[in-house]
């Protein structure tokens, strides 16, 4: 009886060992799988989809070697002139040839990589979002120089720059990240407004040092006041 028990015990051990070996062999042949974790859909979720800045990084050394004073360079007041309010899509300040010509790369011929455009005597600003091919869904042409109708509309003003904890700390990012994922599009190159042209375009991972503080732009509701 005792011998039978020992035999049975060893038989079980051998079966278990065989199963472990077989399972581990099967597991090594399986494809690795990392489940995609869906982002939480709350209203303060920001969308950092920053591959654009890494794609533009190949121009970083060119940007770094640009001369400091660029003829006809823009400043922030030029930048804000084409926007109805801070963060609004700028209107198209030049004529647009074919109204129906949407999304076939026409606009990207000049706005993908920028560069000097002789007919407009200006540098074309690089678009931060070349993947949004239907440009005129958001960017409209200017139809009139006067108001359609007077109103009491007040423009949302831009936040101030230079907001940093210590003299040499990285300033905070005062704007939202959505539609701003490609930092180098606006902060480097000859069309970047001179006040915000970055001295270090080669440090590609911008958000390693710069944090967002756009509370001035999107005030977070103060729930504590309600209980007063
Ligand atoms: C979903 C709306 C949307 C679409 C589509 C869109 N844009 Fe924009 N674009 C914006 C907004 C909003 C801004 C302004 C961001 C800011 O200044 O805060 C902007 C900014 C810009 C700027 C200004 C950058 C600078 O340095 O002055 C250019 C140029 C531009 N877009 C070109 C384009 C082109 C070209 C396309 C098509 C390939 C396009 N956009 C598609 C919303 C859009
Ligand atoms: C021939 C080159 C060229 C083409 C094509 C072109 N643009 Fe431009 N775009 C420019 C230049 C140059 C400027 C700068 C003008 C200036 O600063 O006076 C500009 C400025 C802009 C601006 C204003 C950006 C700002 O921050 O003020 C927007 C928006 C814009 N273009 C959208 C478009 C759209 C949309 C199309 C396609 C329908 C388009 N562009 C096609 C050269 C071009
Ligand atoms: C559509 C153009 C645009 C894009 C894209 C953009 N910015 Fe800006 N940025 C601005 C403008 C304009 C200002 C000036 C303040 C304002 O109007 O919000 C600014 C201000 C800043 C400042 C403050 C500078 C100072 O001297 O205080 C920092 C830092 C900054 N941006 C970082 C970033 C980073 C990091 C990214 C990429 C995640 C980025 N920006 C993408 C247009 C842009
Ligand atoms: C290693 C940290 C670090 C990284 C990465 C970094 N920055 Fe900065 N940034 C700083 C510091 C520090 C300052 C302040 C410099 C000063 O005041 O002398 C600064 C200043 C700035 C300014 C104000 C103008 C200037 O150049 O002084 C802008 C705009 C800016 N950074 C944008 C960017 C952008 C866009 C990127 C990504 C291409 C980036 N930064 C990557 C640390 C960083």
Shape: elongated
Helix percent reads 10-25%
| Low-confidence blocks of residues | 216-223
List the secondary-structure elements in sequence, H or E: HHHHHEEH
Overall mean pLDDT stands at 83
- N-to-C terminal Cα separation, in Å? 83 Å
The spatial strand order of the largest sheet comes to 1-2
Q: What ions, cofactors and ligands are bound?
A: heme C
Number of strands: 2
**Biggest β-sheet, characterized?**
2 strands, antiparallel
Binned strand content: under 5%
The number of helical runs is 6
Structural class: mainly alpha
Structural Rg: 28 Å
Can you describe what's shown?
Mean pLDDT is 83; it is low at 216-223. The chain is built from six helices and two strands, in the order αααααββα. Helix content is 24%, strand content 3%. It has a two-stranded antiparallel ribbon with strand order 1-2. It is an all-alpha fold. The structure holds heme C (4 copies). One heme C (HEC) binds next to helix 5.
List the helices and strands and how they pair.
Layout: H1 2-29, H2 51-56, H3 60-64, H4 76-81, H5 108-111, E1 115-117, E2 122-124, H6 183-187
Antiparallel strand pairs: 1-2
The structure holds heme C (4 copies).
One heme C is lined by residues 53, 79, 86, 128, 158-159, 161-163, 171, 173-175, 177, 180-183, 185-187, 196, 206-207, 210.
